[in-house]
Amino acid sequence: MSHPFEVIVVGAGSAGLAAASELKKAGIACCVLEASPRIGGRVFTVASPHSPLAMELGAEFIHGMPPATLALVRQQRMPIMEAGGKRFHFTRGKIKEFPDFWEWMEKLSSGIAKQGIKQDRSWYEILEQSRYKNHPLRPFALSFLEGFHGADPTLISYHSLKSAEKFGEKIQSDRSFRIPNGYDQLLQLFLQTDPDIRLQHLVRRITWTRGEVSLNVSTPKGVKTFEARRVILAVPLPILKTGIEFSPALTMKEKPLSHILMGQVTRVNFEFDEPFWQGKKQEQSDLADLGFLLSPGREFGTWWSTHPIRSCRLVAWAGYQSTLNFKDATESEVIGRALNSLSVMTKTPPAQVQKHVLEARCHLWHKDQLIQGAYSFLKVGAAHAMKDLVRPVDKTLYFAGEHCHYQGNHASVDGAIETGYQAAKTIRADL
Ligand SMILES: Cc1cc2nc3c(=O)[nH]c(=O)nc-3n(C[C@H](O)[C@H](O)[C@H](O)COP(=O)(O)OP(=O)(O)OC[C@H]3O[C@@H](n4cnc5c(N)ncnc54)[C@H](O)[C@@H]3O)c2cc1C
After folding, report:
1. Phi and psi angles of residue 152, each rounded to the nearest 5 degrees, phi first
2. If you write DSSP's letter for every residue of 285-298 in order, what string do you get?
3. What is the structure's pLDDT at 281?
4. What is the DSSP string of 75-88?
5. How many A from CA of 256 to the centre of ligand 1?
6. d(CA 191, CA 126)
7. Mean pLDDT of 228-244
8. Whose CA is nearest to atom 31 of ligand 1?
């Protein structure tokens, strides 16, 4: 049977766009079906009426110097800026500088590694059995796991963290960069190949056999059928698990899928009328150079500024457990809870903090039915899960997305882009 498309890509996030652009360059007939009215997925940049700085509701940082992202940055001659500033922590009612945070984290990590952990266990279990069990750094380490990795420390695989650490060393992931004009600029290059993208096309069911796929799609003009010889599934992990009906079912992927879990985080962007927190000389700390402020155990345990750019913006970040606790909360309740955290830490009455707010914006990713979380993490013993997941089925079903990067770069935009490139490359080889 001849089809208008050789390949259909489902999902126009970083992975789907990267794949479509590569296929288009190779002259392979392809179209992208995206359920939402915009492209980008978890890259979600918006403009603020109160600041010339782009505002990120999803990804903000380029972690380290990953080759795929840096190549795009160079091709587009896009300015990027290294994140800086001092690190502080709020403990026992006081804000103090924490200049050696990374050195401590490294000490803890290498101290644990020296124990020689052969059999994979959860990071929490390993921490509890280590000499760091009662260390003052323990809450920071736990908060980092829940925040940065968006993971449940009692479930996340220790070995997977070590493999991510190894990858991180290669790309200097202790450094991070921002794209002042917005993360969405990075994806613009993929549009230069003019891929055929259909927005508001929600894929509900995929019927497949070797070399034939038929997609049942809800569109603004009613239900349509799209046919092709292959499909790249570049949808978020929870959608792959239960959001699309497959006929026949993806039984061959059940095991790897059950080993990869969706992490949870919540971020809120605040634009204030002035950087009121800087006026407070708290003890010996001067917050004028604030980069990050950590307060483990607090609902919003991490805050950051836009340093080195001086602005009136702060970002509040809540990790895994807090986000689970926000299950039934509305956006304005979540924003209110973030402001309460800030009020306590800056010793400024809530009403006064509220008066400084010009704008507060967040996107509750756990409530977004097309995403259902933040980014993926691996369960104990799941060393091969991502590699098993990404293996194509019958040269017909291909997989891409941040949850498919099995070399330690999952959960990132760069990792998602690489998996998109890889899916396109595999298809070219299979043709
Ligand atoms: C709050 C937050 C902060 C983050 N911060 C960073 C950061 O600083 N740095 C970093 O590198 N990464 C960060 N990440 C992770 C990063 O954003 C993701 O890893 C990456 O964007 C995922 O890309 P993707 O293409 O795999 O998936 P997505 O971007 O989620 O794209 C998948 C697309 O599939 C679409 N879709 C879903 N269901 C269907 C369907 N049935 N039919 C058609 N389309 C469908 C969705 O609408 C979506 O557009 C962050 C994520 C979040 C949530």
Report:
1. -85, 115
2. EEGGGEEEEE-TTS
3. 57
4. HTT---EE---EEE
5. 20
6. 45
7. 98
8. 13
Amino acid at 268: V
- Rounded distance from Cα 286 to ligand 1 centre (Å): 36
Q: Which two tokens stand for residue 150?
A: 């968006």
Question: φ and ψ at 45, to 5 degrees?
Answer: -100, 135
DSSP state of 20: H
For 6, the 3-state DSSP assignment is: strand
Domains of the chain and CATH, by start: 5-46+181-262+382-430 (3.50.50.60), 83-173+266-367 (3.90.660.10)
- The alpha carbon of 44 and the centre of ligand 1 are apart by a number of angstroms equal to 9
pLDDT in tens, 279-303: 755 554 678 899 999 999 999 999 9
Residue type, 65: M
Q: Which residue has the tokens 């977004």?
A: 368
Model pLDDT, residue 285: 64
With a CB cutoff of 8 Å and minimum separation 6, the contacts of 187 are: 14, 17, 39, 40, 43
Supply the pLDDT for residue 63. Answer: 96
- Find the residues whose C-beta lies inside 6 A of ligand 1: 10-16, 33-36, 41-43, 58-61, 63, 202-203, 234-236, 239, 243-244, 265, 267, 365, 370-371, 374-375, 401-402, 411-414, 416
- Ligand 1: residue whose CA is nearest its atom 4: 59
Alpha carbons within 13 angstroms on the beta-carbon side of residue 215 total 29
What percentage of the chain has pLDDT greater than the value 90?
88
- Range ranked top by mean pLDDT from 275-279, 346-350, 356-360: 356-360
Q: Is the per-residue pLDDT at 412 higher than 80? A: yes
Q: What is the pLDDT of residue 286?
A: 78
Out of 235, 317, 322, 376, mutate this one to test ligand 1's pocket (max ligand atoms within 8 Å of CB): namely: 235
- Taking residue 160's Cβ as centre, other Cβ atoms within 10 Å add up to 27
Q: What is the 365 CA–ligand 1 centroid distance (Å)? A: 9
